[in-house]
């Protein structure tokens, strides 16, 4: 059956049994069931069918074959539609021209709340169109431009717009293409955080952030009272740089999630964090230090902070250098009930009287690039950020 006809059949089934808002999921990466990927021609049929389907409030088209030609139909649909709240176009084949069409449609669209463009190579030019759109659109709350090959000019433009845009609550700017080591984009984002009072969630993964950048970000966050989720994973943050984060955590009363996954904070960095969490901070709920070259001493220090700090409930430590002391420390936390098994990414087991830790598929956002083919998609153990910061849902 042609995909367009399949969509019409599905639409009729939904119409006959459900009038409340639904998300129509037509993902092209189902591993268990062979699927026909959506093409540009199919999108034209889909847009026509959904034009009268007022109960469809979400559309998931991830991992399909949609190009700039098909985006033209989607842009027209967005201009005319008044019910769609969520649109996922991640990992299609959309370029700068398609980005211009989508961004142009959002100049007049007043209903879409969440847009995912993840993995589409829209580049610096395409990103600038979204920056221009954010100057006008006052409805969009969540925007994901991660892995889109954004450039320095685009990031600076987005940072400038966010000083005035009060609607955006969550933005993902992961993995831009930066050719300078001077951290201009990080400095601009820091200046934005000093002014912006609406941003709740910020993802800056793979931004080449180093000592100068992390210091500027921390300085800005002393003045920011809205940010709850800060993602600094996969950067170049070292043990000395964590001093700035430690000092920030001693005073910050807003941050709830801090993701330092895949940096190099080592034991000294873990000590800075544990000191702040033990003696001062009582607002941070989740901390990820996965793959940070931390040895047993640093891990034990973090475990000790959890005995005193009852607010810190989620901690992720896999990929570090476990010794027996670290294994026993986290095993004791879990057995005592202080650390719940679904709030960490390790599980203790014993062999010949010695305690070891095994990895669990838990984390802040394990299902960012993919969703399981069966079981619970929004599993709180695998996506704990959903349980902590509601704005991160679907982002």
UniProtKB/TrEMBL annotation:
Pfam assignment, any one: LRR_6
Species of provenance: Coturnix japonica
Keyword set, alphabetical order: Repeat
SMART domains cross-referenced by the UniProt entry: LRR_RI
Alphabetical list of PROSITE patterns matching this protein: LRR
Highest taxon above the source species: Eukaryota
Signal peptide: none
Designated name of the protein: Leucine rich repeat containing 34
Lineage: Eukaryota, Metazoa, Chordata, Craniata, Vertebrata
